[in-house]
Amino acid sequence: MAILNNSNTPIVNFGKIPYKRPWFRHRKFKSRAVEQAINDVVKKMKDRDLAVLFENCWSKSLDDYVLWQDDSKGYPRTFIVPGKFEVLFIRDSTNQVISYTPFAKDDPELAKMILGVINIQAEYLAKDIYSNSFFPPLSSDLPRPYDPWEENDKSYPKPSSAVWQEKFGADNLAAFLKLTYHYWKNTNDSSFLQNEHWVDAMQFAVNVFSEQMRGTMEEFGNEAYLFTRPSRNSSETLLLDGRGAIAKRTGLVKSHFRPSDDASFYPFIIPTNAMISMELLHLKEILDNSDPDTLFHTLDLSSYILNLSREIREAIYKHAVVKHETLGEIMTSDNDTEILENLELLKDVGAHTGYLSQAFWFHDSAEQLRSEFGAANSLFGEAILRLARDRPHVVFDVPPPPSPAPSPAPSTLEHPIISPLGQTSLLTFFIKMASKKTQKLADKAQYIKGVAKEKLGRTIHDEKLVADGTNETLTKQAEMEAAQKVAVNESQKNESTSKNKKDINDDKKPFIVSLKKRNPKVVEKPLTKGSDNESPAKEHGKANPVTHQKMNEIDPMEPESSKLKKEKSKL
């Protein structure tokens, strides 16, 4: 386990997370209150590797990144860097020190250091409200880092010489207000209200929130902010000659760059707007508890801030919150299993260096970007402290509390900006969705089975019909054949009867037909073309003896045997 003993020397850890804190005398900033808090938490943690990672990470900004402190102007100033880049980022500096504010009331030096961060943020923002990162003050004697974009970046308003980058992210201004509120809430110190830089920065921030609610066409030709950078990467510059992505007024605040400092494809970032709305309410709380004779109350700034916060909040619930059909509003997760899974993932990342990096490759945590990143380490420490306070059974060896009964979801108008999941956790939501999907698949399989069965039944039925039709056809065919046989028999019978009758009357008939066949001199000429209905005798102008006989006395259907009998009788 990695903790400090009474001589302030680290105890060697034999787990997979290396202990990386510098020796006590080499630390940039020392706080007894923070060290005591580390010891109190670490000795209760059931996971030894997680305990070492917590100590390494939460103390990192104090141990290595507080580069300069000064109070020569009558108020403290603190220059703190995020890691590799020795410049101050508004967002990152807030995240690096905000988790120390609960311990500032017991450590005056720690409180002074945090107030120094607030004051230097205000000093920078009062001059360059749209900028996100800054060089060290000239009076600090710290080296000025190289700025690769200094000659190529084109932005409006034109930045001062103190600016390292002018990438406007609305969350930077919200972070400035957030650090102020948490410091004020934990120390009850409002001395920053006497700092004219803080007053100017606060008012400029409120104005920027209002300005960035305008739509693209609404502000066209009168833009409050423009930024371009020669780059082939769309993440490094803004569209439309520096105006950014097209948007219309919705009640939300545009943020041209994301918290990653990459250009926003969609300018209305909902977490940023939620943060702004909440920090405006916190700012109102500070102003309402300040001296009634100050300028804030004269200008009725508190009422304006309240209305602005409400407008943003209502726009969030109008445009960004979608209710699930059965599970209600899903905002965040408080599932213990999911929390533990993420802690294990962070342990895998920290196993390589003892710290958390800014980013890592999703399938190989050894491939990391900026392996030492102050904001990420401080946020991890803040997360462990919050778990120790709100869900101690996750990190401490204590039993979990009984599950509370679910409470009804509040109405939209009374919603907090960030609220825990009401009816169910995110994991439960996914389990239910998976169950529903499984049921749908089962229903679909049953449906397919039914369809197949129905098709099979239809096929069998059709085959039966075909067979029945075939049998019926065969039956009809047999009946027709039988009828034909009967008809043939009847015909033969009739023919036989007719034959007998003809034999009786043979003497009465002429001998012409038989004579024609017996006499070779009598030859019947064939019919010529076009005279099918004419007699050959007529064609040659001569009378044929046959034509002088009556046609009804010639029976062409008379059988040959009957004709021979007639000839014999004549002879």
List keywords for this structure.
571 residues, mainly alpha, 3-stranded antiparallel beta sheet, 9 strands, disordered N terminus
Write a structural description.
There is one protein chain. The chain has 571 residues and is mainly alpha-helical. It has a domain at 440-474. It is built from 18 helices and nine strands. The strands form four sheets. The chain has a three-stranded antiparallel beta sheet with strand order 3-4-6. The termini are far apart.
Mean pLDDT: 78
Order of helices and strands: HHHEEEHHEEEHHEHHHHHEEHHHHHH
| Form type | elongated
Rg value: 52 Å
Strand line-up in the sheet with most strands: 3-4-6
Approximate helicity band? 40-55%
Count of β-strands: 9
**Helix segment count?**
18
Largest sheet: 3 strands, antiparallel
Structure summary:
The protein has 571 residues and is mostly helical. The chain has helices spanning 32-42, 48-58, 60-65, 90-97, 108-127, 170-187, 196-211, 239-242, 270-288, 295-298, 301-319, 336-353, 374-390, 392-395, 426-504, 512-518, 536-539, 560-570; strands at residues 66-70, 77-80, 88-89, 133-134, 154-156, 163-165, 226-228, 359-361, 364-369.
Q: What's the helix and strand layout?
A:
Elements: H1 32-42, H2 48-58, H3 60-65, E1 66-70, E2 77-80, E3 88-89, H4 90-97, H5 108-127, E4 133-134, E5 154-156, E6 163-165, H6 170-187, H7 196-211, E7 226-228, H8 239-242, H9 270-288, H10 295-298, H11 301-319, H12 336-353, E8 359-361, E9 364-369, H13 374-390, H14 392-395, H15 426-504, H16 512-518, H17 536-539, H18 560-570
Antiparallel strand pairs: 1-2, 3-4, 4-6, 5-7, 8-9
Protein name: 12083_t:CDS:1
Biased composition (Basic and acidic residues): 492-510, 521-542, 560-571
GO biological process, one term: carbohydrate metabolic process
